[in-house]
Every structure is written in C-alpha cells, then in structure tokens.
Amino acid sequence: MAALQAQRLFLAPSTSTPSTSAARPRPRPRRSSVATCRAALHVPSGIHAAQENLTFQLDWIETPRVPASPSAEVSLEKLRAIADAAADRAEMHDIIGRQRDNWNHLLLHSTNSLTLAASAMAALAPAAPTMVALKASAGVLLATAAVTMAAVNKIQPSQLAEEQRNATRLWRELERNVRAELALGAPIAKADVKEAMDRVLALDAAYPLPLLPGMLEKFPKAVEPARWWPSPRPAQAKKSKSFGRRGSAPVASGNGWTQDLEDEMRGLLRVIKAKDENEFLTVGKLVLNLNKGLAVAGPALAGTAAIASVFIGSGEAGTWASGAAVLGGALAAAVNTVEHGGQMGMLFELLRNCAGFYRKIQEDIEANLAEPDVDRREGGELFATKVALKLGRSLSDLKQFRKMASPSVRDEDIKEFAGKLF
Question: Is residue 234 classed as helix, strand or coil in its secondary structure?
C-alpha cells in the first residue's frame, strides 16, 4: 500500500469535497492554545484504498510563548493596580459628590426655614403677651442662622459637589485609558507606569477627597484654570521648530504633519488663548466677586437681625427693632437663596473647569509643536481629529484658523471662538 502523508495546514476551516478514496477524520477537540488548522490527505493518482485501511498521524505543534521579563511583569501588575485604584477613586468621588449635593439642598432649606421663622416671631413679638419668649426665640434662631450661613458660605457645598462630579468623570476616563492599554497586550514599560502614576497624583491634588484639611480655596485671590493633568516635562518645554519653510508646498509625509496642519494648530492655539480661555476666566472673576459679596452679606444681615431682636419691646427702640429684625431676616433668606439656590459656587467651579479644558488643549498642541522630530509626535491626522472633536468642530472647520497664525492678525481682530461645545 502506498504511503499516505497527512500535512497540517495553518488555514481557516473550510468545507471539502467528499471523495471515495479519502475519508474525513474525526475532528480533534480544539485546544485553546493551538491555532485553528485543517488536515488534508493526499493520495497518489491511480491508487485505491479501502476506507478502513486509511491511517494518518497529526503532530500538534504548540506555539512557544516568549517568557516576559520580570520587570515587564512587575510593570504590568503595577498598571493593573493603578486601574483598580482609579476605579475605586471614581466610586468614592461619586458617593461623596452625591452627599455634598444633598448638603447644599438640606442646608439651604434649613437655613431659610430658621431665618423666616425668626422673622415671623420678631414681627409678632411686640403685640404678643409672651413677648419675651418670642423675642428670645427670634434672637436664637437668627443667631443660629447667621452662624450656619457663615459655615456654609465657607465650604460652598454646591462647589464641592461640582468638584466631585468632575473628579468622577476624570477618574473613570483614566481607568478606561489604562485598561485599554492593558487590553492591547503590548509590553508595559516603566515610562507607561510613571505616566499613569503622575496622572493619579495630579488628579488627587486637583480634587482632594477630605473636606478639612486639604479643601480647595473657595475664594482665591486669583482665578486660574483648574489643572488635573501632570505638568509638562522639562524636555517638552523646547522651542518649536517649523515643519519646512513657510509658503512652501505641504509635505505629503512626515507622520501626518504638514505645514498647513502646523499653521492650523498655531492659529487654534492663539484663538484659544485670546478668546476661549480668557472668556471663561473673565466670567469666572465676575461670578467669584458676586459670590464673595453674597457670602458676606448673608451672615451680616442675619447677625444684624439677631442683634435687633434683643431690643424688641425696649421703649422707643422697640418700635424700630422689630422692623429691623424682620427686614434683616427676610433679606438674609433672599441672599442665601440667591447664593446657594443659584449655586454660585458650582458655577464658579464649572467656569474654572472649562478654562482648564482649554488650557489642556493648549498644552497638548504646544507639546506636539515643540517636538522638532515629526516622527516622535502624535500622528498629525489623528491629533487633528482629537482636537476637532474636543472643540465640537469638523476637520474642515480647522482650516479657517490657519490665517490666525500670521503675526499680522492682532488679538483684537479675532472675533470667533475656537470651541463650539461650551
């Protein structure tokens, strides 16, 4: 009998035509670590054999695994630990954010109830037979409301809740990025672990969990954009070099970077600095000054009303003391409602975060333009797509900012904003 040889072909499974001279073997159970294969029998022409006499042998070859170095395994485990920590942080910030949002609602209604109830007592006290009791009750409630307002204005619960909401979103983004990197299966370098750790530390500093101590300053002297990403490394703070000469034809290659794309990025950089970021910082300063005034006026009015309630029923002074207590309590409740019902602290934090959003886009653009070797930059087309998505624009919209890179265009001549999302 002629020798029959079975050959292993590393191909996808496919259907075969039945033959009288070859029998289909039983399928071997697939192994998880072995690639899918197909076995075929080649019979010389002119030879006929019975089906029961056919035998063949398959040698299953295991694909050898390249053992990872100990340092790579340690880096992989570190990155997994960072992903788990980011998920845990996101959960903690989410829980604390909901708690502090409840603080804002509960303290707002409680303080207003105290103030309005005290004002009603102060109004009824002069004509009531129990004037002393009403006067004392009004004074105690107004004093309590003044202290409560001062404490609440110091911590700004609505701003605390907004900080935690933004922190939750950023921690979840960090977790997604780290897990996506782990899913690629590529070797993890120490630089990847260091970058992830830097992002963790930057987020911890930007949005602290504890209330006291460590709470962010609610009334800063200078309004600065929120910063939740690591500071640029010294090596990135180099002077940017142009991609070719200005006025030359765009280069077709170069990691997706061309002279036109560089001009678009420089124009965007200038518009973001002059318009978008500056607009949010300017409005943030106005909101901060308004919030400062309200934070001082509320406790001051409630305290004045508490002092006035002491003089109710005291001769000639009692006639105006009751009116002063009622008016001061009503105004204090109104101021408290505008400040915390309108969530001025949250609005200020939102404006800081928006300014920080544009500041990060600036630094991303500057970091890429500062790298003289275009092959070491992020891919030009991919980077332009990311920037366009963050700004709420299409890639074709970015072309209009090319002319903004010219020194002949003054900042005062820039009328349009770069971002369309907010």
Answer: helix
